[in-house]
Amino acid sequence: MMRFGCSQLVVERLDPLVNPGVVGTPHTHQIVGGNAFKADMKPVDYDLPSHANCTTCTFSEDLSNYWTAALYYRAPQNGTYKRVQQFENGGLRQRGGMTVYYIAPYDGVSNVTAFTPGFRMLAGNPTLRGAQGESRGICHRCFEGANFEPFGGAPCTGNDTTSLPNHFCAGGIRTQVTFPTCWDGVNLDSPDHQSHVAYATIPFEPYFEPFPTRPITPEQNRGQCPASHPVKLPQLMFEVMFDTRPFNDKAMWNDDGGQPFVFSMGDATGHGNHGDYMFGWKGDSLQRALNARCDNDHCRELLRQTDEQAMACRQPQTMVEDVGDGDWLESLPGGVEIN
């Protein structure tokens, strides 16, 4: 599988998928990827690779954009906010941002279809506040040890929860966003940014065995796509490492012992976490990488920039405001209330 780091591009209130053309969208996002990100990115007409001149991701041919909600700490004493910073994932070197995965089948035979120029999608539901109707593949992992220990198994298994952890996490919190792997083969997008794709019929899409010792059946490997969405896509996943360690102090938690973190859309539960994706790989680079079964952040099929080059790519805010990296905020950006 491909697993690579994408450093922070910008943190601001833009969302060209859900709120195209709007500067100052309802809540804050943390964005990574190519520096062609802007408020209005019309499918196909706005070709990301031709407009970007750098990317925060490891592979220089990946000018896609990936974004998720920002996470904030809310001080129980006065209700002010600070943005929780992200830190690099195990084995990677990056400046904030997130880890991106593209997973191809493990059987060594099956191929998947890379995303098409203009393709975009959304995973999760930012309005969810409870487990009922929860989104698939959206979860949080509490690292009980300082060095990602125990690491745990496949995402969204074991002790992972769809709600934010309710106790101190010595190694921080990793949030996971897992996207559907089945496409209708026609539409690059849909009005809700989800109907043109679908999840396969198993809880977690790939059969998670890095070094299989026995033949892997198609059912184990990818699950079954519904007839309405027959085209198999690569498994796209985000991992965001939130550095909640500075807040592991009883005096900094709520009086009732409850956790003090809230996502930028006013979600203090964690159920509403979500992620957005706009495809922007150059030419057939992603398809070649998937066919070659590229491994982690090294791939002979792709151009790999240095970590320093990736970290140097930045973009100024379009909606210029303090998003919680400076002074303590009296409210969440955009005046969002906890709901």
Summarize the structure.
The chain has 339 residues and is mostly beta strands.
Notable characteristics:
mainly beta; DUF1996; 4 helices; DUF1996 domain-containing protein; 16 strands; globular; 339 residues
**Chain-averaged pLDDT:** 90
Number of strands: 16
- As for the number of domains, it is 1
Order of helices and strands: EEEHEEEEEEEEEHEEEEHH
Q: Considering DSSP H and I runs of 4 or more, what fraction of the residues is helical?
A: under 10%
Low-confidence stretches: 203-216
Task: Using the CA coordinates, give the radius of gyration.
Answer: 19 Å
Largest sheet: 5 strands, antiparallel
Structural class: mainly beta
Report the portion of residues in β strands. 15-25%
Overall form = globular
How large is the count of helical segments?
4
Separation of termini? 38 Å
Q: Spatial order of the strands in the main sheet?
A: 1-7-14-10-9
Describe the structure.
- The protein is mainly β.
- It has one domain (1-205, 234-326).
- Helices cover 6% and strands 21% of the residues.
- The strands form four sheets. The chain has a five-stranded antiparallel beta sheet with strand order 1-7-14-10-9, with no helix packed on it. Strands 2-3-4-16-8 form a five-stranded antiparallel beta sheet, with no helix packed on it.
- Strand 5 and strand 6 form a beta hairpin.
- The longest helix has 7 residues, at 285-291.
- The chain is globular, with a radius of gyration of 19 Å.
